[in-house]
Design a protein that fits this description.
With about 220 residues, this protein is an alpha/beta fold. It contains six helices and nine strands. Helix 1 packs across helix 5, helix 2 packs parallel to helix 3 and helix 5 crosses helix 6. Helices cover about 40% and strands about 20% of the residues. The protein has a single domain, classed as Rossmann fold, CATH 3.40.50.720. It is globular, with a radius of gyration of 16 Å.
Length: about 220
C-alpha cells in the first residue's frame, strides 16, 4: 500500500483527490501539507499545518511514494506577482526538490494550459518555469497536467472563471477540444490513475487528462 502527499488539499481538485484516496484501499496514509485544516477526521490522514513558503524545513516528514501537487492561485486572488510566483512556482519546485532528495518515485503536479517558460505573459511564463524546474529534478515518474478552465463547486466564488464557464457552456461547440472546460473531479480521477498506472508522456494536456480519467 502507498503513502501519498497532497499539497493543496483544501482547494477544488485537491479536496476531490483527497476524498478519492481516502476511499482507495491501495493508499494507507495521506500526508497533507497546507496552511489550513481540511477539517476531516480519518485515520489515514496525517495533517501538517505549516507555512507553505517554508516547506523545505519539513524535509524529515516529507516522505511518501507519491506527491500530488494541487497548489495554485489566481491573478484576482493574488495580485502581487512576487507572492503569486512564490505560490505557483516556489511551492511545486521546492516539493519536487524534497521529493528527489527523499527518494519519492512519483510526482504529479497541476500546471495550466498555455504554460510556456518563454511567454511574455507573466502567468503563463511562471507556470512554464515551474514545469521546467520540476522536470529538471528528474524524479523517475513525473507528470505535469495542463488543464484548461477547471470547473466545479469551489468554496470561494471566482467571477472571471464563472463568466468564462457561462460563455463556454453557450459557445462550447465552437471551442477546440483542448480549450474546453474540465471538471476538477476529472483531474482528480486522472491523478489517481497516473499514480497507479503511469503514462507514456510527462506533459499531459487537457484532452489527454480526460482520456486518462476514463480508463
Amino acid at each position: 500500500m502507498k503513502t501519498a502527499i497532497i499539497l493543496g488539499a483544501t482547494g477544488l481538485t485537491g479536496s476531490l483527490l483527497l476524498e478519492k484516496l481516502l476511499n482507495d484501499p491501495s493508499f494507507k496514509k495521506i500526508k497533507l501539507f497546507s496552511r489550513s485544516s481540511v477539517e476531516i477526521t480519518n485515520p489515514k490522514i496525517e495533517e501538517h499545518l505549516i507555512d507553505m513558503f517554508n516547506l523545505e524545513k519539513f524535509s524529515e516528514v516529507f516522505t511518501a511514494d507519491v506527491v500530488f501537487c494541487c497548489i495554485g492561485t489566481t491573478k484576482a486572488k493574488t495580485p502581487d506577482k512576487e507572492v503569486y510566483k512564490k505560490i505557483d512556482y516556489g511551492i511545486p519546485v521546492t516539493a519536487a526538490k524534497l521529493g528527489k532528495e527523499n527518494g519519492i518515485k512519483i510526482f504529479i503536479s497541476i500546471s495550466a494550459l498555455g504554460a510556456d517558460e518563454n511567454s511574455s505573459v507573466f502567468y503563463n511564463k511562471t507556470k512554464g518555469e515551474m514545469q521546467r524546474d520540476v522536470l529538471s529534478r528528474n524524479i523517475e515518474n513525473t507528470y505535469i497536467l495542463q488543464p484548461s478552465l477547471i470547473v466545479g463547486n469551489r468554496k470561494e466564488s471566482r467571477f472571471g472563471e464563472n463568466a468564462a464557464e457561462f460563455f463556454m457552456k453557450i459557445f462550447g461547440f465552437l471551442i477546440p477540444k483542448k480549450y474546453k472546460m474540465i471538471k476538477g473531479e476529472t483531474i482528480a480521477d486522472a491523478m489517481q490513475i497516473l499514480a497507479k498506472k503511469g503514462y507514456s508522456e510527462k506533459i499531459i494536456t487537457s484532452e489527454k487528462i480526460k482520456e486518462i480519467a476514463k480508463t
